[in-house]
Amino acid sequence: MPLIETRDVSHSFDYPLFNDINFSLGESDSMSITGVSGSGKSTLMHICSTMLKPNSGSVQLFGEDIYSLSQKELIKTRREKIGIIFQAHYLFRGLSAYENIELATILTKNSIDQELLEKFKIQKVMKQKIGELSGGQQQRVSIARVLTKRPKIIFADEPTGNLDEKTANEVMDILFEYIKEVKGVLFLVTHEKSLAKRCKYSKNLSLKGLI
Ligand SMILES: Nc1ncnc2c1ncn2[C@@H]1O[C@H](COP(=O)(O)OP(=O)(O)OP(=O)(O)O)[C@@H](O)[C@H]1O
Ligand SMILES: [Mg+2]
Question: Given CA atoms 29, 110, 77, 43 in this order, what sign does their dihedral have?
């Protein structure tokens, strides 16, 4: 059974963004989406990750048509089964890095993985407030927070946008390793061609669709 499958997904805001997006990803698959700014990459990711109902078409996660679920069921799927790394990382600025990650564990009852914090090289800044961290450190905290929930599908929108090449590759290594370990799926939006190529499938989004 695919973990994620779209059928004829089309969406427009003021103007049409994309038509008839069809793809299917299963255990340990990864797919990258590139495309010019404004082509709708983040929008497609939001549609696939329970955040936005498309104008037409359907999205199945774990075999369920997500936009025919009740709001309560939809929120449960979002909280427990998927992890979303947003383009702008939404951390609570008044809280410390540790408290931000701890929040993710409260709902899912997971514990914080110290090894993960070390891999991300953020263990030393855990006590600092988010406002005191560099952009790249904040980005790694937000990715660690998502992985702490142990989701089966990871949606990542420019997860390495704030990072230098070496750190970006290290963070991607962790994401790929994670997907393999949990037999999950990585849906990656990126502008970096070299990162895009590391995925099993690399697609470009334009008005013509996902090619
Ligand atoms: N909620 C919204 N209401 C109206 N228009 C929107 C909304 N969200 C996005 N758009 C428009 O849809 C288009 C695609 O936006 P989107 O953020 O998906 O692009 P993107 O490919 O992720 O771009 P970037 O590479 O710059 O992140 C843009 O023109 C944007 O202004
Ligand atoms: Mg975007």
Answer: negative
